[in-house]
Design brief:
By secondary structure, the protein is α+β, with helices and mostly antiparallel strands. The protein contains 4 helices and 4 strands; from the N terminus they run αααββαββ.
Length: about 200
C-alpha cells in the first residue's frame, strides 16, 4: 500500500500575496473607471466651453454690426456718451414721475397735515424716493409735536424724521420787539405718490 504525502512547495505567505494582488487589481479597475469618467466629463465641459465661446463670438459680431448701424444713423456711441446715458435715463424717469404727480393733491395733503401755528419756509420734494424735506418755524415745542403727530397720522405721509430743531430769536423791524420761535427741519415720505 502506497502512502501519499502532500508537501507544499509554495513560499510561506503566498495566500496573503494573492489577496494583495486581487486588491491591487480591483484598485486598478476602479482607477481606470474614475479616469474614464473624468475624461468623459472633461470632454463634455470642453464641448460646453466651445459652445459658449461660439455664442460669445456671435454676440460680439452682432454687437459690432449694431454699433456700425448706430454710427451710420448718426448716434454717438463714444465712451463719454455711454457714461452720460444713465443720468439721462434717470432724468427722464423723474420727468415721467413729475408729469403724473398731482401737485394739487400733494398741497391739499400737506395743508391738512400742517397745524395753524406752524409756518413752513421751504418744501423740497425728492422724486427718486418720494421723500419731502420741510423747514419751518413754530411758536412752541407743542406745536412742533403736533405737526409730527399729524404727519404720522395722515394716510398720505409716513416715516417722519425730525432732523433738527432749535430756539431762534426773531427781531421785528423796529428792533424793539424780540420773540423766540422753534426752527425745525424734518423729512417725511409721501406715500400717495408711491405709484408715480
Amino acid at each position: 500500500m502506497a502512502v501519499s504525502l502532500r508537501v507544499s512547495l509554495a513560499a510561506p505567505g503566498m495566500s496573503r500575496l494573492r489577496f494583495v494582488q486581487w486588491l491591487l487589481a480591483c484598485i486598478l479597475v476602479a482607477a481606470l473607471g474614475a479616469t474614464t469618467t473624468f475624461w468623459w466629463t472633461s470632454q463634455t465641459v470642453t464641448a460646453q466651453i466651445r459652445q459658449i465661446e461660439h455664442n460669445l463670438d456671435a454676440l460680439r459680431a452682432r454687437n459690432q454690426r449694431m454699433r456700425a448701424q448706430a454710427v451710420q444713423t448718426g448716434w454717438d456711441l463714444s465712451e463719454a456718451r455711454l457714461r452720460q446715458l444713465p443720468q439721462e435715463i434717470d432724468f427722464a424717469r423723474q420727468l415721467q414721475r413729475l408729469e403724473s404727480f398731482s401737485w394739487t393733491q400733494f398741497l391739499n395733503d400737506l395743508e391738512s397735515a400742517v397745524p395753524a401755528n406752524v409756518s413752513l419756509e421751504s418744501v423740497v420734494l425728492n422724486f427718486t424716493d418720494s421723500s419731502i424735506a420741510l423747514r419751518g418755524m413754530t411758536k412752541t415745542l407743542t406745536d412742533l409735536e403736533r405737526l409730527v403727530e399729524r404727519l404720522e397720522d395722515h394716510p398720505a405721509f409716513d416715516e417722519v424724521v425730525l432732523s433738527q430743531h432749535a430756539v431762534k430769536t426773531i427781531s421785528s423791524r423796529k428792533k424793539v420787539n424780540h420773540r423766540q420761535v422753534i426752527a425745525f427741519s424734518l423729512t417725511v415720505r409721501y406715500e400717495r405718490g408711491r405709484n408715480v
